[in-house]
Every structure is written in C-alpha cells, then in structure tokens.
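User: Here's a chain of 234 residues. Predict its fold as tokens.
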Amino acid sequence: MTTIRTLAETGSTNADLLLLAREGAAEGTWLRAERQTAGRGRQGRQWASPAGNCYASTLIRLRPSDPPAATLALTAAIALHEAVAVYCDSPIRLKWPNDLLLDGAKLSGILLERAGDAVVIGFGVNLAHHPQGLERAATSLAEHGMSIDPAMFVETLAESVARWLSRWRGEGIAPIRSRWLACAHPPGTALTARTSDGASVDGLFDGLDGDGALILRLASGERHVIHAGDVFLI
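Assistant: Prediction complete.
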C-alpha cells in the first residue's frame, strides 16, 4: 500500500525515511519535502533543494526471492523516466546508472541507501529550478516551458515505481535492462567513467551486462565493465 506524507521542510527525506525504516515503516511509504536543508546526492554531494522541485523518498523491504538489490538503481531510473515522460514531450535519455538527461543536461538524481532489509530510494527532480555552475550541465522542466506541481508529480512517480517494482520482482532484471537500454543514449556515445579509486576510463557506450553493469568499448577494442563510478558524456 502506498502512503505519501509531505513535510514543509526537513533536512533530508532519505535520512528521515531511513530512521522510519529502522522503526518498522512499511514498504510503500513515501516522504516528500517541499524544501530540504541538507539534501544530498551520490557520494555525499550536496543537493540544492529550493521549493518547487521534487524531493521524495520511498521505502522498499527486500525479500529473499528478490533480484539483486543493486539492480533497483536501474528499476528506479526507468520508473522516474516513465513518470517524467507523462509531463514532458521532449526526448529524455538515461545515463548510467540512473541520471535523466534532457538535451544533454542533468534533470534529476537518484540516491539509494540500505539499512538491513530496507532500501530507501530518494528522487530529486528539477521541476522548477536547476543549479548553476556545476561540473556538468543541469536543466529543469520549467526551463523547457513546463509547469508541474511537485505533489502531483510524486503521485505519478509513486504509481510508476509500484508498477516497475512489481515487474522487477515478478520477471527479474531482463525487462528492466531492456527498458533501460531503450531509454538510454545510443550505442557508441562517448563516455568517461570515474571509478572510486580516482581512475578515469574513456570509451564508447556498448550496453549493459546481464547484471546491469556498464560496458565501455575502449580504443583498443577491449570491452571494459564498470560496476560503480560516475559517468560523464564527452
């Protein structure tokens, strides 16, 4: 059962929901904030959180029969892609593992955090505003002429997440991987992957392996598999 609770302001919806998860909150719980004062992205980066954008987190309780938890990153990405597409006619592309790009600029971010059998998935979507002066270009739906109520958007997103979570559990990673690839930038797109040890790998996008890891084709012709890291369009 899906329940959505809205806060006028909080530090981080992910942090709040992780606390609720430890207290026994059920799967399907959603927490949305109109503003965050301590929003964060991947690898502890600060996530700017002015009013008007989407800041929402949901809770999933892992089951023994579930596919690998790491594949929830791709599942969340395609659910968000589907939700944004309800409101946006322009082509939206996925960049591994779960960024949405509009005209090549970052539209959203997804942060997954785990505590025991609980996985909290946080969504930040630039509906009305987008940050300036970042390492990579960012954009918002408002920048492209769209005005979307955050509360309505989260209802759409919750429905999409529930649908794709059901497929993830019932059919495994195959349909998730297939849908992700259909929404991604084309094969042959030039990418740079920065891994956790600080190394950079340049290559051409060559799809995903069976577990959803990124495959880059290097200049040598070798196929290099990336399991974790930051990816940038070149």
